[in-house]
Amino acid sequence: xxxxxxxxxxxxxxxxxxxxxxxxxxxxxxxxxxxxxxxxxxxxxxxxxxxxxxxxxxxxxxxxxxxxxxxxxxxxxxxxxxxxxxxxxxxxxxxxxxxxxxxxxxxxxxxxxxxxxxxxxxxxxxxxxxxxxxxxxxxxxxxxxxxxxxxxxxxxxxxxxxxxxxxxxxxxxxxxxxxxxxxxxxxxxxxxxxxxxxxxxxxxxxxxxxxxxxxxxxxxxxxxxxxxxxxxxxxxxxxxxxxxxxxxxxxxxxxxxxxxxxxxxxxxxxxxxxxxxxxxxxxxxxxxxxxxxxxxxxxxxxxxxxxxxxxxxxxxxxxxxxxxxxxxxxxxxxxxxxxxxxxxxxxxxxxxxxxxxxxxxxxxxxxxxxxxxxxxxxxxxxxxxxxxxxxxxxxxxxxxxxxxxxxxxxxxxxxxxxxxxx
Length: 422
Known about the structure:
This protein is mainly β. It has no helices and 31 strands.
């Protein structure tokens, strides 16, 4: 096990822990950096396995950060985590999160409270006795791993694709996709609340007030008053996907008797929503499909957004976060960077120009407008960058993580970019 630092800005360093390697390369500057002194590092996390996928990141008000991902060593995927301090340095070494190891552990999500306690959730195959189940584990600031918690009450069939939101005190809510209603192959979205000790404060409950044919891809955000909003994609009567949402108080009571239709654009599919709490508001972004006027039967995706007041009512019109391209703009994530500004990121593929996957970002306002020009987070020579996720601290410093290549197109690594100043 080796640890080596030199100091230029944040410095070059290499951390070796078993089969996981963390290296740092001085990058070209922070997102919207103001000076060369504000130059950031892009930290690369690699492993011998080279199957690092589905990253997530959480950051508390002090800038304490944790990144989680899945990696395949041998026959099964497992869940790993790495902490970083507010200056972007690794804290300790990467740890394995899951205890259960016979089968695949996938799709991790993470949240963190103000004390630095992290909650990691994921899906585990056959640990609950039938298909995938949802499990959670609390990790202390010193990387003490507490006992695993089975989240789902219903055990038969598939429980998958979890999402988690943690408030400042460490209370958390988990949402996931379930076959509990046993409607053939259809799925619904369920949720469950826990206190800071990991004890449940509710049974699992169905999120939708009027379940659609299929509901999937949940995302959840919680505000300082412990009100939480869950959004998901659901199929309509014609088979298209729309984005729905519901607002709950901490007792689990829904605000509305009917689901909120988030999107205004309904011509084609609306997919993969993500939600963030911004003080007294919630902001949602998603992929919006459209047909090219000049290219018959050709479809692409934009990123659209919608702001909601704290009472769950729409604030302003639907936001076109991105401009149309011949290609794909999808897998969007977002985070607050101030009381009035949100940073949105997505993976971008332009079939006419770059012909490669890049990670792009755009600032929008809670007033419902686009602010400034788009930015590219990955280095220009990175030709395959996908699946970006975001986190921020109370001052608006942002951490972004995405999947890149580790030398070949068949091995994947994680890139972590820390922005100190906006």
